[in-house]
Specification:
- This protein has three helices and four strands, in the order E-H-E-E-H-H-E.
- The protein is an alpha+beta fold.
- A four-stranded antiparallel beta sheet has the order 2-3-1-4.
- It is elongated, with a radius of gyration of 16 Å.
- The protein starts with a strand and ends in an 11-residue tail after the last strand.
Length: 103
């Protein structure tokens, strides 16, 4: 069963332009085939570019550890060089209906 997936990433680098587009391309490659969408917010301050990525949707991962393992295995080197922080929440689907927990 699929899990509700919420990932937040903070990417930073020296200002050179087109950072938001590059992060979008990295995420597109990383999450190809996974039902996730993202919103990117870009800021430039004191000669650095910052992109905050809010990622959400449905995934096959059942835990944060599974998600981290997937990212560690599939992320590009540039992803790791820009990544400065992350937060994630994975909510696995529960069997049964939400009202009685049985059906």
């Amino acid at each position: 069963m699929n899990s509700e997936t919420y990932l937040d990433f903070c990417f930073i680098r020296k200002a050179t332009g087109n950072f938001k587009e590059e992060i979008n391309e990295l995420l597109t490659t990383l999450f190809k085939g996974v039902r996730l969408n993202w919103y990117l917010e870009e800021k430039t301050e004191d000669g650095i570019e910052i992109v905050i990525a809010e990622v959400k949707g449905m995934s096959k991962w059942q835990s944060e550890d599974e998600t981290i393992e997937y990212i560690e295995t599939n992320a590009d080197k540039a992803f790791w060089s820009y990544l400065q922080g992350y937060k994630m929440y994975i909510y696995p689907a529960k069997k049964g209906c939400s009202s009685c927990g049985v059906n």
